[in-house]
Amino acid sequence: MFGEDQLAQQLAQTRETLSHGPDSPGGQSEPILTEAADGRIKVTLGTDGRFERIKMTLSALKDGPEALVEQLTLAVNTALDQRSELTATDAPAPDMQAVNAQMARLQDASLQQFKDMHAAVGELMSKVHGGR
């Protein structure tokens, strides 16, 4: 049976492992602003990785649809590249199968401890009320 300290330690290790998961926040704290077509097209990428705004001047629209699409693609890809650089991490992703197995062991040990405690309390109550 696991002791209280062992359970606490394993839970702390599991929390630490999960805190480095793929969904943990990256390094982007400010929106990313990129420009294309000599500043006539501006793209803003929010801190959540979604686009907040695409702004362009009338002269950018006059360049024609092909040039517009090319410059928009350039601005969007530049923003995504910058976000990738900001949020990149050298830490490996946690092995979720190992985390799941560790959590299953903790759950099983905890359930066994509760069963043992329930039996001990039941036995004590029987002794206390046994003479009545």
What does this structure look like?
The structure is a single chain. The protein has 132 residues and is of the alpha+beta class. It has 2 domains: 4-23 and 92-129; 32-87. Helix content is 58%, strand content 12%. It contains 4 helices and 3 strands; from the N terminus they run H-E-E-E-H-H-H. The chain has helices at 4-19, 58-61, 65-87, 96-129, and strands spanning 32-36, 41-45, 51-56. The protein has a 3-stranded antiparallel beta sheet with strand order 1-2-3. Helix 1 packs antiparallel against helix 4.
Gyration radius (Cα, Å) is 28 Å
Which sequence of SSEs, written as H and E, runs from N to C?
HEEEHHH
- Tell me the number of strands: 3
Largest sheet: 3 strands, antiparallel
| Estimated helix fraction | 55-70%
Cα-to-Cα separation, first versus last residue: 34 Å
Biggest sheet strand order reads 1-2-3
Number of helices: 4
Beta content comes to: 5-15%
Low-confidence runs of at least 5 consecutive residues = none
How many structurally independent domains? Answer: 2
What would you call the structural class?
alpha+beta
The average pLDDT is: 82
What is the approximate shape?
rod-shaped
Write a brief structural summary.
The protein is of the alpha+beta class. It has helices at residues 4-19, 58-61, 65-87, 96-129, and strands at residues 32-36, 41-45, 51-56.
Record keyword descriptors for this entry:
single chain; 132 residues; alpha+beta; 2 domains; three-stranded antiparallel β-sheet; 4 helices; 3 strands; 58% helix
Could you give the topology of this structure?
Layout: H1 4-19, E1 32-36, E2 41-45, E3 51-56, H2 58-61, H3 65-87, H4 96-129
Antiparallel strand pairs: 1-2, 2-3
Helix pairs in contact: 1-4
